[in-house]
Amino acid sequence: xxxxxIHNSLEVFYEKVDDCPLxxxxxxxxxxxxxxxxxxxxIVNDHQLSYDKGDLFLITPYDSHGFDLEGTNExxxxxxxxxxxxxxxxxxxxxxxxxxxxxxxxxxxxLTNKDDKQMVNMLIENxxxxxxxxxxxxxxxxxxxxxxxxxxxxxxxxxxQPQNIAPHPDIRLMQILDYIQEHIRQPDCxxxxxxxxxxxxxxxxxxxxxxxxxxESILQYISSYRIRLIEHRLRFSNKRxxxxxxxxxxxxxxxxxxxxxxxxxxxLKKHKNELKKTGNPVLFP
Length: 285
Known about the structure:
Strand content: 15-25%
Structural class: alpha+beta
Largest sheet: 5 strands, antiparallel
Radius of gyration: 21 Å
């Protein structure tokens, strides 16, 4: 099946349809679909997911998707490609990289926070007006609205929680996870005694508390989170290994390779080559 392409780095349009004209569509770009009204089922890689008004989906390259509509549906569609990603590589917020990295793990609407759903709804209303009006500075306005939606979406999916985290974790644990993710590039801030002092625990109690809540040690979680971010730097940035090492506080290229090999069993260079061989998207070969 041929993959669809886009002609611009960003495309935004409104759709009102009674039936999905195409099935099993595949793209060479990313597509965000917001449900303005209507309901039905979204089929992604042969998995059916019910959707309703206010849901926001992210479809990635290598995904196959389509919609089964129940009556008339209205959608706002945002498409962006590699060029658009590159344009925002320099920004301090990793919102696009975050979306890209987690895209293949999403299994429903991106939006999970009630307040964020309301905010995105207002942004979509304004985005629709901006697209329809297409007046002076229209393109700049559309890009700003789209980027705001991307940041909010990223906020909903950015928190990488431990796989075996306890149901309904307490607020202290979520604060600790937020702290770790905020300081992941500062190894001195991630030492157990430093984290313990920050949250008023003894190092021993923090270790027991975190393991009880997450079924893994705090050091295992920190290492796992660093590995995930390093992996998506390999896939979605043009940074060299020594630059990634510097970003995450490693002394040099040798140290980051030892760390990566200890957890993944291979070097960074070999891992990137494997991604290319297996067909995973690597934006900067």
